Amino acid sequence: MSLSAPVASAPRGLPYPQRAAVVRHPLTTALVAVVLFWLIALPKGGFKLYELPITWAYLGIALLTAWSAFKFLPRPGAFVEGILISVPILLFPLWMSAIILINGFDSASATAGAVVAFLVMPVLLLIFVRPLLAQVPPSRIWATLIIAVRFAVVFGFIIYIFNILFGRYLEIPYVTVNIDDVGTLAMKHNDRGVVDKFFSTYNNGNIYGICMCTVMPIYLLMEKRFTFRALFLLTLLLTTSRSTYFGAIVAVAGMAWARGVSLKTILSLGFAGVVGVGAVGGILTFLGYGAGWLFDTNLGGRRAAIEALPPFQFIPEQAWGGWNEMNYISALNGAGWTGLALFCLSMWTPLVWRAPESPEKRQISRHLKAGLLAYCAASFFDGAALLAPTMAIYWLIATCVSLYSPRSEMFRSATA
Q: What are the distances in angstroms from CA 415 to CA 2, 70, 80, 144, 401?
């Protein structure tokens, strides 16, 4: 069964199934559910190997890849569509790899992170994990997503309140934090003066915020309980991250597009905007920040990266310099104008994949795309691309979008 299974019986027009679908592939469904939960709920748990963080979620994606290769080995056609749709996405990492091979690199860890984020993750998810997702009932995927986000929100508040009460962080080695990062969360740039950023199990407020913006539209579409929806939005406010605020605004605009702009939508957005502005203003006042903090011309110290750009060049001559917080500036700095164009093609391609004709399925597709658009917009300032689980979540959502393409009928028959 594919992700585009019938969802017409959902309450309030939302495509959230009320009855559990028949599971035709129980092992695959269980593996996907476990990995999806770890990726969103506990993304930082793991260990380090030669300073390279190894997370259980990323190992889970590797396990899914191995299972997919074994399961579909007799039917390699299951990978064909994934390969075809990945061609424009992989042009940038191939260009990046050529630059690294020809010009060398400055930082081994940053280079490895870029390769994982822009080459390894899209290959694993779009080509290998995609056929597995097509065999999982959509109700199981959305239910797992909801449970994982709820866990991140609730446990995040436990960590947040624990820090306020006791002045230290609640850490569970191997689970909520990498074993080699225990005791170092104070150095993760979360300090906001009176209180720290809200970061849940993501160990950093910006990473949490940017990842939640990516899943925000589809989560709010599927989540039925107002309490959890409100708490989720409150966590975004408590990140006190400008990138998160910008991403959330774009996500809300994307949701308005996905649902169709009506008078009710406009009034709802207007009310939400007033409440949001008031909440942000109250939080900033409490923390001692003025309104000018939101419009910092120094971009939170990131302006130096723009001013340090090399001379105009289509093909860079210098060694690959790694990747900073600003995705598009990093692509331009490391890969030249050609690389920037290919990077935009890579990141924006899922946004233009055709949506299905069914109104319910099209609504899901558009909400998924709204999350991708939110990340692409927020990453102008801080994309946290090299930090787990940012790009894994991005390419996972992109993989879900691809399953709503009208071209997927042949693909679904190949994986049935």
A: 9, 13, 11, 22, 17
Which pLDDT belongs to residue 75? 86
> Using CA atoms, how far apart are residues 293 and 219, in angstroms rounded to an integer?
29
Residues 299/320/397/82 CA torsion (nearest 10 deg): 160
**For position 16, what pLDDT does the model report?**
44
Whole-model pTM over 0.85 = yes
Residue 132 pLDDT exceeds 90: yes
How many Å apart are CA 390 and CA 121, to the nearest integer?
10
CA-closest candidate to residue 302, choices 373, 214, 243, 375: 243
Q: Are 141 and 32 in contact (CB under 8 A)?
A: yes
Task: Reply yes or no on whether the pLDDT at 35 is more than 90.
Answer: yes
Of the candidates 362, 359, 346, 357, the one whose C-alpha atom is nearest the C-alpha of residue 395 is 346
- Do the bridges between strand 52-55 and strand 46-49 make them parallel or antiparallel, or are there none, so unpaired? antiparallel
Whether 14 and 145 have beta carbons less than 8 Å apart is answered as: no
